[in-house]
Amino acid sequence: MTHAELWERHKAVMPAWLALYYEEPIEIVSGSGRRVTDGEGTTYLDFFAGILTNAIGYDIAEISEAVREQLSSGVAHTSTVYLIRKQIELAEQIAELSGIPDAKVFFANSGTEANETALMLATQNRRSNQVLAMRNSYHGRAFGTVAITGNRGWSASSLSPVNVQYVQGAYRYRSPFRELPDADYIKVCVDDLRNVIETTTSGDVACLIAEPIQGVGGFSSPPDGLYGAFKEVLDEYGILFISDEVQTGWGRTGDHFWGIQAHDVVPDAMTFAKGLGNGFAIGGVVAKAELMDSINANSLSTFGGNPISTSAAKATIDYLLDKDLQANAAKRGAQLADGLRGISEEFPELGDVRGKGLMLAAEIVKPDDNTPDAATTAKLQQETKNRGLLVGKGGLYGNVLRMAPPMTLTEDETTEALEIIRDSFNSLR
Question: Domain end: 258, 291, 323, which one?
Fold first, then answer.
C-alpha cells in the first residue's frame, strides 16, 4: 500500500484536526540508531525523534531486552492496586535525580496527564483555582492543560476549570523587552509577575507552571536565572512552582539534567514524560512529599507506571546515565548550534537560532521586516525531508523549525544534517 492510499484511509477515520507533516505524509515502519525508514523504502536521519520521545534512538538492545524480559513473565499489566517492582525502582531513581527534598513520584501515561496531576496537586494543596502560566506556553491537550496553554494555536476551548493569568518572559525573541541586557530583562519580567499577582489575582494563587524551554512554543526560553528570580516572588505569596520538564528532562539540554537547573532553583514539583520511555508511553510528577500527599480522595492511574513502560523507562535512564548522554547532548548541540548560526549569516531568512543541547530551533522570518514566515518554514521542512532529514515545526506563528534528535547523535550525523539544512536554504534562492 502506498503512502497516498494510507493517507486516504487516515482522512476517512481520523479527526480533521489531527495534523500530519509534509505535502505527502509518510509512514515510518522501521528504525535503527538515529535513522528511520518509511513505508516506501526511503531512509531518513531523524532530527525530531517522535517529538523528543525516542531520546536514545531506535532498536536499542538494552531497552528491547528489558521489555522482552517483562513480557516473558506473561504480565504486561497489573494496575497500581498491586506492588510493581520496576515502578518502585524507577520512582526511587527519579526521586533521587530530582533534587527535590523528600520527593515522591506518581506515574501517568503522558505529559498531558502529568500536568493535569500537577494542577490537581497544587490547587488542592493551596485550596485555590488560580494559576499563573507563561505566555506562548503549551502543557497538553486535556481540559485543564489547554486552559493553561498560552498559545492560541493550541487553545481549543475558552472554557476552563482554573482561573489563569499569563506572565511575560519566556519568548524573548518577540518580547517588547528583547533588547534589554539579561539582568534588566529579568528585572522587568519579575516586576510584571509581581504586578500580575497584585492586580489580576486575589493573592492566594495555587501555582506558577512553566517550561524551562518552551516546546510547542518553538524552543524559546528566557535568560538563565529568570525562574530563580520568579521563585523569590512566588515564595513571598506561598505560591508553588511547577517545572514542566516533559521536553527538557533527562539531560537533553546538555548543561543540566533538568532544564530548570539552569535557573538555580529547585521547584516544588516537576512533570515529565516523552524521552523517559524512549517510545513507551509514560509520564509523571515528582514533588515534595507534603505536596504529593495533599490529595485527600482516592486516586490512581490504571495504566500509569505499568510493568512494561517502567521496565523500558528504567532501562532508558540507566542507558543515558551509563553512556553520559547529557555530555553528548552538550557536545553535539554546540556543534549543531554553531552550524546553524553559520547558516544564519548566509541566509537572513534564519532570524533566530536558540535552545540548548539537542533542543534547538531556527525561527524563519521575512528578511525585509523580520515578521514570521510560516510558508517558508513549511517549504524548508519539506526540502529537508526531500534530502533525507526529518525536522519538526512549531512556534506561536508556525514559523520555527525544531531540531531534537536522539541524544546518541554522532559528530558525522550532525555534519550531515547541517549540510542538508544548508542545501535546503539554498533551494530558496
Answer: 323
